[in-house]
Amino acid sequence: MACVLRALCVDAHDPAGLARFWAALLGWETTGRGELTPTDDTGFGLRFTRARDPKATKNRMHFDLTSATPDDQRATVEKAIALGGGHVDIGQRPDEQHVVLADPEGNEFCVIEAGNQFLADCGPVGALACDGTRAVGLFWQAALDWPLVWDQGEETAIRSPRGGTKITWGGPPLDPRVGRDRVRFDLAPLDTDLPTELARLVALGATARTEEAGAATLVDPDGNEFHLR
């Protein structure tokens, strides 16, 4: 058994505006309800919801966008800035070749240099890079039933058997958590009902926080909140 990663849920003060930014940057389709459907091989969508609190710290997840050539990388950076994004300093070294940007509400993402071998066979959204331990990588491998494609030291990565975007965890030390995570997984049961899938995820190491009719909120072994509905 497994569950399906339906979307990455992002808190936003202007959900519709942020959806327009990402739809234009990625070329994805929008439903008009703050939801985006990929037109590439990413394998999961984006869903923007109204934020409760202001962004207080660096997100624990961010996209790594790929580049075919140096000109392609420059074009992606220029497009993001023209759409309302901007450069951001998260401690990257001057000699690093990737470019760190943020969307109009400060959500970080990277435009990776051409020739990156780890993302060589990935589409435009090469990876969802996460702050997390090896234990949480193994939890999500089992939860989604995606194979490990990297497992070295505390660093892990998984990828759908169908290909598409990789999900990576960089290992400790973890950034401190300040308030609620603004970026979260939104899951759906696969071939089972919600109570059965909820029990399976808890057995794998998740902790249930709330359960309502047709939905549950949990945290994974690293304390990252996610939704099952």
TrEMBL record:
<feature type="domain" description="Glyoxalase-like">
    <location>
        <begin position="8"/>
        <end position="112"/>
    </location>
</feature>
<feature type="domain" description="Glyoxalase-like">
    <location>
        <begin position="128"/>
        <end position="228"/>
    </location>
</feature>
<dbReference type="Pfam" id="PF18029">
    <property type="entry name" value="Glyoxalase_6"/>
</dbReference>
<dbReference type="InterPro" id="IPR041581">
    <property type="entry name" value="Glyoxalase_6"/>
</dbReference>
<dbReference type="InterPro" id="IPR029068">
    <property type="entry name" value="Glyas_Bleomycin-R_OHBP_Dase"/>
</dbReference>
<protein>
    <submittedName>
        <fullName>Bleomycin resistance protein</fullName>
    </submittedName>
</protein>
